[in-house]
């Protein structure tokens, strides 16, 4: 996406927090300093600059839904940049003709790390250990290992690839699934239409797919029923990929277990049935929010803004002009 900047003045950009503002401590490209004018705006209240000059907005990492209406008030807006890989909630609010770019790749390491951690924690019974400790009980016994599990990874994008790489040392048998069948450098990727045949042959299902019309409600009653007894479902994708009512019904029988970083609804209400199920391990959507996030996000923003100022194509464009 080539965006002319006019040359006579630098583009005006807002970032949601001060930690994203000073990106050019090294002097900037060619030692010329920052290529854009950056102001901090969390998108509550009025922007700190003339809305008619503001062309590039970086959305808050947390709570963006509450301020997306501000995008419609910016007449010169050219680019919306998220700090998340997911964008299903943002896209409807982006005005026509405005480019939407994501932070794809920024959260891969953290999310993949959590996916493997949740699988291990659920299989080895960490939740039960914590409950036992709270009651002063020594709850020993044999539990499933991640080693030798047959793992079905649904999602072969950047997060899925990061998960696959981290699963490799754990001696699992890995099968990958994506929207279409193909071969890549890591081997075979099965198409989603093959799921009915694949599900009964796997002990662990890891969901790492984006939320789209095709993946919304993908994990429903028939999907869950096709899994073998004792199977584990790990969701680090998006909550609506799973039909919550169907998952609760299956977990309530004790036949399956689940480890969820994302839920539908989210946040999960205090009285929700998922909280009461001992075979449901829940983390509060923290897959990408680790110490690995800030340096990767800063590197992406710096590169994006330098590209924008120079009129070069942006990375991770998912909507609008390219």
Structural write-up:
It contains seven helices and 14 strands. The longest helix has 18 residues, at 293-310. The protein has an eight-stranded mixed beta sheet, covered by helices on one side. The protein is elongated. It has 322 residues and is α/β, with parallel strands linked by helices. It folds into two domains: 12-106 and 292-319, NAD(P)-binding Rossmann-like Domain (Rossmann fold, 3-Layer(aba) Sandwich); 108-282, Rossmann fold (3-Layer(aba) Sandwich). Helix 3 (158-167) links the parallel strand 6 and strand 7 (173-178). The protein has helices at residues 108-124, 126-134, 158-167, 195-198, 221-225, 244-252, 293-310; strands spanning 12-15, 37-40, 54-58, 79-81, 99-101, 150-154, 173-178, 182-184, 187-191, 204-207, 232-235, 257-260, 280-282, 317-319.
Key structural traits:
single chain; 322 residues; alpha/beta; Rossmann fold; 8-stranded mixed sheet; 7 helices; 22% helix; elongated
Topology:
Layout: E1 12-15, E2 37-40, E3 54-58, E4 79-81, E5 99-101, H1 108-124, H2 126-134, E6 150-154, H3 158-167, E7 173-178, E8 182-184, E9 187-191, H4 195-198, E10 204-207, H5 221-225, E11 232-235, H6 244-252, E12 257-260, E13 280-282, H7 293-310, E14 317-319
Parallel strand pairs: 1-2, 1-3, 3-4, 4-5, 6-7, 6-10, 7-9, 10-11, 11-12, 12-13
Antiparallel strand pairs: 5-14, 8-9
